[in-house]
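User: Quick sanity check before I run a bigger batch. Here is a single chain. Can you write out its predicted 3D structure?
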Amino acid sequence: MNIRMASLPDARILTDQNIALAKESENIVLNPDIVLDGVKALLSDPHKGFYLVAEENKTIIGQLMITVEWSDWRNKPIWWVQSVYVQKEWRKKGVFTQLFRVVEQMACTQSVAFLRLYVHEHNTSAILTYEKTGWNQEPYTVYQFSL
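Assistant: Done. Predicted structure follows.
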């Protein structure tokens, strides 16, 4: 398995996997054109973040996205792990673990304070995967204000 940074030619498969992720994890149907534009916007602007992809035989089988939050309390960035998706036939085969280990190594070399992620409370398989790879639940609740 190869882990690499995603680039613009990967935008379509990242879009498809993001759409599948939303449907599977939250039963949300996303607009493919909006998602594609969002993926391309991130891939075109490293200040927004980046995607890592896992490949087997040059086929993308998994992904995760990193976005950056600045912590004035720590004077360091916090990386948010988002858009985690592994194709069904590759789940429970270590794909997320390998993606995560690469992110962990990258974060250590770039003075990142820590990694964070959020997960839907009913996505028990993802929660178990995160806990198995060393993530801890924190005492925060996410709020959203729609505009």
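The chain has four helices and five strands.

User: Great, the batch can go ahead then.
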